[in-house]
Amino acid sequence: GENVEQHPSTLSVQEGDSAVIKCTYSDSASNYFPWYKQELGKGPQLIIDIRSNVGEKKDQRIAVTLNKTAKHFSLHITETQPEDSAVYFCAAQSDMNYGGSQGNLIFGKGTKLSVKP
Amino acid sequence: DSGVTQTPKHLITATGQRVTLRCSPRSGDLSVYWYQQSLDQGLQFLIQYYNGEERAKGNILERFSAQQFPDLHSELNLSSLELGDSALYFCASSVWGSDTGELFFGEGSRLTVL
Fold it and tell me: Which of A114, A66, A6 is nearest to B43 (CA)?
């Protein structure tokens, strides 16, 4: 099955700096790669996603890049602000049919980002 | 507010006991997913239901079971509880059954097994 590795597990940056979180996946059939942000005491929330037919996607201060050959994708946050402090999860999913079960969304273990004012 | 409601928010129980966690999906969402979040394992997929039928199974123990009712709410039953079952259990819902798409998570049910 799919395995998603995420690094680093913790990341501390100064306000205004950039933050980069990297993930690798194992299943070459995976074709959907979302990123979720989890604030303290809340459930994860989708912040950006990318599909395998696209190499890069931007939404204001956040961007995601995908390298299908190397099976890795990254989240880039520019001009970080204290409200960006949270746990970020990458995930991978295939919509292929595995013996009757559809591909599931498999998450990395998360990165705790701290942005210091 | 994601629109997904989970109850109870906190639950403390003893080893060997059984508990039921409840989830009401967003209005119109047919798929419900259950995830377990522990400190060292991140978000682990347990099981998915679509319109009342089990659609996919992940790392769900035999002591755990779930179901989705005709009104689309779902329950996760955890029995013969062990200390290691202490975790945050999330329910999520989505519009599609198996296609890739956004999951909307509830705020979770924190289970503590003493």
Answer: A6
Query: Nearest CA to CA, how far is A70 from chain B (Å)?
Result: 22
d(CA A79, CA A16): 4
How many CB atoms neighbour CB B6 within 10 A?
A: 22
**pLDDT tens digits for A30-40?**
889 999 999 99
Determine the distance from the C-alpha atom of residue A69 to the mean position of all C-alpha atoms in its chain, rounded to a whole number. 17
Angle at B66 between CA B62 and CA B69, to 5 degrees: 155
- Residues on chain B touching A32 (C-beta within 8 angstroms): 100
pLDDT in tens, B19-28: 999 999 999 8
Within a 10 A sphere around the Cβ of A52, how many other Cβ atoms?
16
Sign of CA dihedral A64, A47, B112, B44: negative
Neighbour-count burial for B67-92, b at 16+ CB within 10 Å, e otherwise? ebeeebebbbebeebeeebbbbbbbb
Assigned token pair, B38: 């522990």
| CA-based nearest distance A78→chain B, Å | 24
How many whole angstroms separate alpha carbon A51 and alpha carbon A31? 6
Say whether B42 and A109 touch across the interface (CB within 8 A): yes
Tokens matching residue B68: 């989705």
| Calpha distance B18→B30 (Å, rounded) | 27
